[in-house]
């Protein structure tokens, strides 16, 4: 037993890079306990990170920064600069929240791990982004089979400063709260292929926009054609809403919108018009 009194609170798959690492699993449990003890609206408690965990963050940041410079949409680069996240240590959610709240009213609250899609989206509808705090295993700094703090902060935080992204997130969330069991998967897939994995054109070039693209070196390289493997189509909201996805592997299909505003306007118009309803 460790300090939290619960062994293996966090379940990892056998093929998870940290499956056989008892120290990592204890860290995952300890960080999960912070979220499990948290009540919405309270000040967000700090996750006490180890030097090794800060090191994983620094490694990923070092590799991602030049890729972002070249291949992320310029609006997100600018918003990322405004957040001024440290390069060599994992920032706390509580450090970022004042800027998010001031810009768009959003805040990040801790969550122990993956939550149900409806729960995640419903929180978005109330201006709350549920964020994990743990970091991926040090043996595979470029890979995580599940959202970690790199994904949440490098992928999502800057975009939540963008009024259009915040507005769209609120809309997804409000609709998810009342979606039927057959309607919900359409909202979830569309969210996946736009906010999570969307690409946008900027001055004729494909740029990364979605959090899953911006937080993954492999996904970003594939998305902009540096590596092969992604089939990229023009954004078709109806088709994206009907396409299932596998969150554990590279995305074989990505959609590119004509522009950032084109993505935001096209998706919200389709949602407003009820394209997702039965
Ligand atoms: Fe995400």
Describe this structure in words.
With 278 residues, the chain is α/β, with parallel strands linked by helices. It has helices at 22-36, 51-71, 74-83, 93-104, 117-124, 149-157, 163-178, 184-196, 211-214, 217-223, 237-241, 260-272; strands spanning 107-110, 128-131, 199-202, 205-208, 231-234, 253-257. The protein has a single domain, classed as Aromatic amino acid hydroxylase (Phenylalanine Hydroxylase). Helix 5 (117-124) crosses helix 7 (163-178). It starts with 21 loop residues before the first helix and ends in a 6-residue tail after the last helix. Residues 1-5 have low confidence and may be disordered. The structure holds fe (ii) ion.
Write a concise keyword list for the protein shown above.
278 residues; alpha/beta; Phenylalanine Hydroxylase; two-stranded parallel sheet; 12 helices; 6 strands; globular; disordered N terminus; binds fe (ii) ion
Q: What is the fold's blueprint, element by element?
A:
Elements: H1 22-36, H2 51-71, H3 74-83, H4 93-104, E1 107-110, H5 117-124, E2 128-131, H6 149-157, H7 163-178, H8 184-196, E3 199-202, E4 205-208, H9 211-214, H10 217-223, E5 231-234, H11 237-241, E6 253-257, H12 260-272
Parallel strand pairs: 1-2, 3-6, 5-6
Antiparallel strand pairs: 3-4
Helix pairs in contact: 5-7, 7-8, 7-12
